[in-house]
Backbone:
């Protein structure tokens, strides 16, 4: 996993970031990665985790509940109550 071939974490979609994060977790769990590489991919994994959390927060902020009247016409949009 050469550092110069990695895409900037901030440019990754949620799906691509989670896919790469899962790959890193699997490699670390296998325990066959040299120590220095383990540290490097762990750091990348942390950055990917933060990216996924950021994208999830953004998606949650955009989720809205749409209200409609009895005819089906949209009467308003209000924030979704997330609990």
Residues:
């Amino acid at each position: 996993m050469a550092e110069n071939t990695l895409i900037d974490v901030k440019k990754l979609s949620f799906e691509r970031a989670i896919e790469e994060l899962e790959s890193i977790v699997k490699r670390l769990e296998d325990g066959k990665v040299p120590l220095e590489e383990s540290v490097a991919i762990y750091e990348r994994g942390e950055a990917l985790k933060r990216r996924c959390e950021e994208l999830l927060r953004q998606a949650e902020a955009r989720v809205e509940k749409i209200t409609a009247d009895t005819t089906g016409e949209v009467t308003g949009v209000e924030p979704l109550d997330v609990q």
